[in-house]
Amino acid sequence: MVSLGDVKRSAATLFAQGQHLAALRLYDAIVAFAPLDFDARIRVADCALALGDPRAANVYRAVGWFCLKAGHSLPALVCARVLEAHGADSSDLLASLVVTYGSESEMLGKVASRVAIPPDTIQIDVPDVRLPAPPDALATALARAEHATASFKDFPDSLHPIPLLSALSEAAFRRVLGTLLLRRLPASALVIREGEPGNSFFFVASGQLRVFATDGLGRQTELAALGENAVFGEMALLSAQPRSASVGCMTEVDLLEVGRQSLASLADELGPVAEALHGFTRERLLGNLMATSPLFKPFNRMQQRDLLRRFTSHDVAAGTVVINEGEEGRGLFVVLSGELDVSHRAGDGNAVPLGTLRTGDVFGEMSIVRNARTSATVVAQRPATVLFLAREYVSRIVSGVPEIKSYLEALAEDREIDNQLSIGEDETPADERILI
């Protein structure tokens, strides 16, 4: 016997190699052992479609209705879009999706559930696909995939809303559905690349993805794992900045892409949409920050969350002065999003640029570590969000956590060197060093 997860990986490899009948036999073995695994049923239909069998449409339709009632809304939408792409009518499935998961649905609730799919760890029997397939292998697999849950009745009474979409009016929901692009990607495919411009965001309908950042030396830092119903890619779209991380497929993945056309179709409801997207963005930024910032590394997850609660969040408009040169240091700042310029007032009164602060950068530490007034100004270059921790609390952390003290001292020293290189060390008296 072999684990279900290993069987899926083997089947996906065979499918990618064009061995569609062999892949179908493995997916069929999963359906035979675990009929609630709707993903395997969809993959059976994919194999049949690749083999040119029109009966695949019956499977997509049956699985779509099952997923809709079972609480798996996005896989249901995938089935509908595949049917549309091959000339079949799926309007009834889409209409039911809107009614069931729209903002006016009485089935949505906070106490909701989904029909669980079997875990990848269970052991199943599989055929030896190196041997010739039985003559009726395709027909048997299609019939099993179509009728696997025909007698299933234990559907949840309350369903989870679809992120963002269920908050829209039904009319807007319908408009968005008409613009979503289905992207079906194999394992190891890269969905978005760090540094590229962002023109869309994505819903995960099925599969597993990894979010990671890459530093200048090519080292990767894992930021998050994403699965069904996750939303990603909205940060770059909203901020009009390059992608801040890469996202790659760990398994076969079905995604629904929301581009600028989709957002344009929501012009009358853009306020609530933007607010919801900003909510997703903030949670992801905070998660990324805790995963990558040295400021949070000495703490476990619970302590990180507790520390974050000590920070206050501030949205600042472009041109806002966050730190004024010459003032007493008020505390520690962390850039959550946006960009801020740092400058120093030279002897002739002109501002000398020192650098730009971006997502994840910490500032304000030098005046605290050196116990001196700030001698640089920090101004928001574009709309930004900064987290602020008051000086008194920073002092308690520094005295109680040696790793934080070392990090802030090293950061202050590195920044001082960078500042002197920016303005010319020979022209700077010792009492005018840049302390942010």
Description:
The chain has 15 helices and 18 strands. With 436 residues, it is of the alpha+beta class. The protein has three domains: 161 residues, Serine Threonine Protein Phosphatase 5, Tetratricopeptide repeat, CATH 1.25.40; 112 residues, Sandwich (Jelly Rolls); 132 residues, Jelly Rolls. The strands form five sheets. The chain has a four-stranded antiparallel β-sheet. A four-stranded antiparallel β-sheet has the order 4-9-6-7. Helix 2 packs antiparallel against helix 3. The C terminus is likely disordered.
How many beta-strand segments? 18
Outline type: elongated
Architecture of the largest domain in CATH? Alpha Horseshoe
Q: Average pLDDT, to the nearest integer? A: 87
- What proportion strand? 15-25%
Task: Supply the key terms.
single chain; 436 residues; alpha+beta; Serine Threonine Protein Phosphatase 5, Tetratricopeptide repeat; Jelly Rolls; 3 domains; four-stranded antiparallel sheet; 18 strands; 41% helix; 20% strand; elongated; disordered C terminus
